[in-house]
Design a protein that fits this description.
With about 260 residues, the protein is mostly helical. About 80% of the residues lie in helices and about 0% in strands. It has two domains: about 45 residues, no CATH class; about 210 residues, MetI-like (MetI-like fold, Orthogonal Bundle).
């Protein structure tokens, strides 16, 4: 911690808890409590029950969760591939061309995501690329929205990468492709896994663009949460939100373990 005096550290921690608890922790705790409640007549939800989670296990919500997981994994892999390739290619460009490339990748997150959804809806509404009404357009939308984060993460990692490793391998006669696969990418693996986790988490929670383009047979869980709460089923929506949160955290924990092993390597 940059603050060294004991009193200043106490003040920093006090401010942190004063801001963290009401803004971040308390709303999450209320959502968790609501997911186990049957009524809300006082300041907090009451009437403990597990009926909402039993309904999730018996209904179509598990299919919506599986849809979100498949979409997020596919979008994360595509975004990581495209972002890594672009970041590696940008190293060979001049400063001006690199700024243009940075701007192109950041553009989808600089505009409202609903605009991205509408643009894809218009772009893929005619042959030969007719994707409207298919699951593929949802994956494409999520990929467009999260690729910027993969690109920026890999670009930052490349800037910190010591070129001596690559130069040493090249001086020993290694081909550029061998240097890329056996030297550079393994060194980038911690950053790649972190970027993949970030892309996955963002895709799991994406709603605005998804609402514009999702087909009825490919409904991600955030859309189902919105529809459930919009009908007034607050407690069922809270249970779905907790399920989405738990699934996302479990995957991120698995990615974190991979990242830790990669860092030790």
């Amino acid at each position: 911690m940059l603050v060294h005096s004991k009193g200043a550290r106490r003040a920093v921690w006090t401010v942190f808890f004063v801001l963290f608890l009401p803004i971040f922790a308390l709303p999450l705790l209320v959502v968790v409590a609501a997911s186990f409640a049957s009524n809300w007549s006082g300041a907090l939800p009451s009437g403990p029950t597990t009926a909402h989670y039993q309904d999730i296990a018996r209904g179509d919500s598990l299919e919506a969760l599986a849809t979100s997981l498949v979409t997020a994994v596919a979008a994360s892999l595509l975004a990581l591939t495209a972002g890594t390739w672009a970041a590696l290619a940008a190293q060979r460009l001049g400063p001006r061309a690199r700024r243009v490339l940075d701007g192109l990748f950041v553009l989808p997150v600089a505009v409202p995501s609903v605009v991205v959804g509408l643009s894809l809806l218009v772009a893929f509404s005619r042959p030969p690329l007719l994707l409207n009404g298919t699951p593929q357009i949802v994956v494409v939308a999520h990929t467009v929205l999260v690729t910027a984060f993969a690109y920026q993460s890999v670009t930052a990692a490349l800037a910190r990468l010591d070129p001596a490793y690559e130069q040493s391998a090249a001086s020993l006669g290694a081909r550029p492709a061998y240097v890329l696969w056996r030297v550079k990418l393994p060194l980038l693996l911690p950053s790649l896994t972190a970027a993949a986790g970030l892309c996955f988490a963002l895709s799991m929670g994406e709603l605005s663009a998804t609402m514009m383009i999702y087909p009825p047979d490919w409904t991600p869980l955030p859309v189902r949460i919105f529809a459930t709460t919009d009908r007034g089923a607050l407690f069922a929506g809270a249970a779905l939100a907790v399920t989405l949160l738990a699934a996302t955290l479990l995957v991120l924990l698995a990615v974190s373990r991979i990242r830790t092993k990669a860092a030790y390597r």
